[in-house]
Every structure is written in C-alpha cells, then in structure tokens.
Amino acid sequence: MATEHIVDASAVAKLFLDEPGAETFRDWWYGALLTDTPMSAPGLLRYEIGALIVRNLGHLDSPARRRTWREAVAGIRFDDETVLDALTVDGLTFYDAAYVALAATKKARLITYDDKMAKHARAHGVAVERP
C-alpha cells in the first residue's frame, strides 16, 4: 500500500495559484491522483482553501470559484480524529499543528511548502516532502 500523504493549504493552493513550484506540485498531485495515493487533511483545509480562493480569485464568478474549490479538494480524505493531538505541538498555530499531529499519528508524509511547519513536523518525527 502506498504511503499516506497529509496535504496542507500551502501545497493545495498551488493547484490554482501561480506561485513558485506550482507546476511541479501539479505534476506530483495529478500523478498521486492517478495512482490512488492516499491523501488526507484535517477538515479545516476546506475552509483554508475557500479563504484562499476568495482572497486570490475573487474576480471569478461564483460557479468558477466553486469549481476551483471542488477540484482543489478532490481526492482528499478529511480526518478530524486526531485534532486534539494538535494541542501537543508547540510553536505553531493550532491550525498548522493539526496537520503535523495528523501526519505524526498516521505515520504519514506531510506535503507542505511552509518552512516553519516543516521544521516542527520533522521535530515530531514526521517525514516532510516538498514536491
């Protein structure tokens, strides 16, 4: 079975924002979807992605924003079982700690472009990848 990946908003945002590393991430993402690579995130990712779409793509009409959101979260399993474990991760916001705690509990790889989150994840024994 393939290693599970926990994806955060800094990574998923690269699906719809033209940022450094976006093309490489998109290649990785679509490859992961094609190979049924398990991808999970805390439920808060839904709201983080929505906020990024409103902030950065507010010029799009409502159907386009909805379509972008649906495409961005497609293939992600949302898991809030370990949300309280985020309280054990010091030095991060509770939101960022939720990703680290989920990855640590599931012994999954964390996909993030957030340097601070990556540093704390490694300190908790989590493998971090920046495709």
Topology, element by element:
Blueprint lengths: L4 E3 L1 H4 L9 H13 L4 E3 L2 H14 L4 H12 L2 E3 L15 H13 L2 E3 L3 H9 L4 E2 L2
Parallel strand pairs: 1-2, 1-4, 2-3, 4-5
Helix pairs in contact: 3-4, 5-6
How would you describe this structure to a colleague?
The protein is of the alpha/beta class. It has helices spanning 9-12, 22-34, 44-57, 62-73, 94-106, 115-123, and strands at 5-7, 39-41, 76-78, 109-111, 128-129. The chain is built from six helices and five strands, in the order E-H-H-E-H-H-E-H-E-H-E. The protein has a five-stranded parallel sheet with strand order 3-2-1-4-5. Helix 3 runs antiparallel to helix 4 (62-73) and helix 5 crosses helix 6. The longest helix has 14 residues, at 44-57. It is globular, with a radius of gyration of 14 Å.
